[in-house]
Each structure stands twice: as C-alpha cells, then as structure tokens.
Amino acid sequence: MSRYINKKFVKLEAYTPGEQPRDMQYVKLNTNESPFPPSAGVLRAIDKEQVSMLNLYPDPTCASLKDAIAGLYGVERKNVFVSNGSDDILNFFFMAFCDEGEHPVKFPAISYGFYQVYAELYATDYRKIPLKSDFSIRIEDYFGNDANVVIANPNAPTGIALTKYEVESIVKANPDRVVLIDEAYVDFGAQSSIELTKKYDNLLVVCTYSKSRSMAGARLGFAIGNEELIADLEKIKYSTNPYNINRLTMVAGVAAIADNEYYVANCKIIEENREYTQRELIKLGFRVTDSKANFIFANSDKVGGEELYLKLKERGVLVRHFSAPDICEYNRITVGTREQMDILLQKIKEILKEKEI
Ligand code: PMP
Predict the structure, then answer these.
(1) Does the Cβ of 112 fall within 6 Å of ligand 1?
(2) Tens-place pLDDT, residues 285-331
(3) CB count, 10 Å around CB of 341?
(4) Is omega for the bond preceding 154 within 30 degrees of 0, making it cis?
(5) What is the pLDDT of residues 125-139, one digit of tens each?
(6) Residue 321 CA, ligand 1 centroid: distance in Å
(7) Would the CB of 184 count as within 6 Å of ligand 1?
(8) Ligand 1 within 6 A of CB of 210
(9) pTM for the full model?
(10) 82-106 in b/e burial notation, b at 16+ Cβ within 10 A?
C-alpha cells in the first residue's frame, strides 16, 4: 500500500476472485463458468467489421442490447440497465442506494462475498443475517422495512433458492426500501422474479451473461426494474464510465439473446449433470444442499473440505473452497460437462480410497 492511498480505503479488504491458474490445464470447476462455448450467432457477430470499428466509441445508450433484453423478458428499454458484468451493477447499487445513515442494507451472512466488500467500500451500515442451520434463508428476517435488502437467488455458495412467492413477500414487506435480487444463477432451475418488477417499484433484479450464457469473458450483466430505479443506475454510470459496454460485447450480447434456445438447452444439460453428480456424491457418503444453481455445495465426514480441495487440485481438478468457519468443511463444485463430472467423481473415489488405506 502506498502512503498516498485515501485513508477510507486503508482497511478495506478487497474481494478475492476464484483462482484462474495458468500453470497447467485443470478441469476447472471453481468459478461457475459454463463449460459450453458461446452460440454460433455470437461467434459470427464478433466479425472483422466490428473489430475494424474498435477505433470508435460504442453506443453509450446501449439501445440495441437493451432492446434485445427487453424483448426477451417482456419489459421496455427504460426498464433495462446493462453493465460491465453484474458485479458492476452491484457496485452501482451500493453507491446509489446505500449509506451509513438512513439507508442501511442487509444480506444473508453466508452469500456472495462481494456484498460485504461493497458495503465496506461505501461505508454503508450493513447487517449480515444468519441462515437457518440447513443454510436456507428465513424470509421473515427480511420483513422489517428497515434496510435495503440484497439476496442472491439462488443463494451462493449454497445454491438454495427462494420461490417467486417468497421473494414477493419480502418485496411487499419493504415498501420504503430497495430489494435487490441477484439472479446470477436463476436459469438453472429456480424461479425468476423479473415479472414482479412490473408490479413493484422497489424491486431490482440483477442478471448476468457470465453463467447460463457462456460469456464470462465478455463481462456483461443487466438489471431489470422500475424506470426510476434504472434512471438512478444510469446516473451513476454516466458519472463513472459512460461507455461501460464495449463494442464487441454489445454485439455478442444481442446475438446471444437471438440464440436463446441454445442456452436454454445448455442449462437443461447442466441441470441433468447436477442431478447426476449429486446422486453419485451421495452414494459416496457426501451431503449436498438442494442446489438450483450450476454448482453443487457438498461436504463429507470422510474427508475435510480443505483437504478435498487440495487433493483434487493436485490431481488437476479445481473446485472452490471457502475458509469461513461455517462453510469450511464444504466445497462448491461447478457443474460442467458429463465428462468433467465423471473425472471429478473418479478423482474423489481415488482420494477416499487412499484415506481408507
Ligand atoms: N452475483 C453472484 C451471486 C455471483 O456468484 C457472481 C459471480 N462471481 C456475480 C454476481 C458476478 O458475476 P459477473 O460480474 O460475472 O456478472
């Protein structure tokens, strides 16, 4: 740290992204990316013509991209916000709507680590709400109308989802607060709350192209909500980085929506692979949560969480381990192709066998 850093940030603990190692080719099941490539339409869209126009700024209004997203979800352009990955929207949410005075925020104690980082970054008053012992969310804990609410649905890293009805009850109970539902993983079998944004002006649903749409490398996220909430996010965007979607990502994003069926089919495969892998893990003595996401959250009495993570890594399979005490015996395993899952299962069998000797 230099001696010049703003004193507000001296104690800030930055978010640690999952490993992106370059030392060898891993079966990479640690950052919830899609194992499938972008659709053929996306590959065609990023053509020489687009590349040759990189000397020109992209459209700051992102009209074509917003229209494509609005069309898919049955909303209007004014209800859509797009940004450089959904992390950016979370950042803007905390910047726009949370503070240390009248606008505190609460979120589940076990959830996406970035919520706390943003809360700290903006010196927001925040409360971490404990989960039930089975890692599910007690919705009544969010009924107070006393703080903004941020919930990942399905939650991460547990994969456990709330129903649309449960989300609605939280939104209804907080008429004077903004409720952000982070639907990064919703396309793998959970219920989306996007429809509810037409009925409630305090609901912001945040989505990403990084998981179900195979575009983590393009950095594209979007939010859907009431036009005034979206205008607030636009204000922050135009005060920080007006050209936040680059030209290539813009055309790729439009093309991905046109190829929606391809992605829906891929999500189905991931769901099947998730169910298959969970069944096999249970046979091996693991416990798994009821995940509706593209990852599995699993633990076993036969092998510690960190030990399993390290032994899998030695064998070329990368999963995500968190050191927080409540979840350190678990691993979060991204669901990949059937072949990748079979390699994972094979390596786990080897590790368990080794421990028996
Ligand atoms: N929300 C959740 C719950 C996530 O796990 C992630 C991925 N790390 C994100 C948001 C951010 O995704 P991205 O910025 O790639 O859109």
Answers:
(1) yes
(2) 999 999 999 999 999 999 999 999 999 999 999 999 999 999 999 99
(3) 24
(4) yes
(5) 999 999 999 999 999
(6) 17
(7) yes
(8) yes
(9) 0.97
(10) bbbbbbbbbbbbbbbbbbeeebbbb
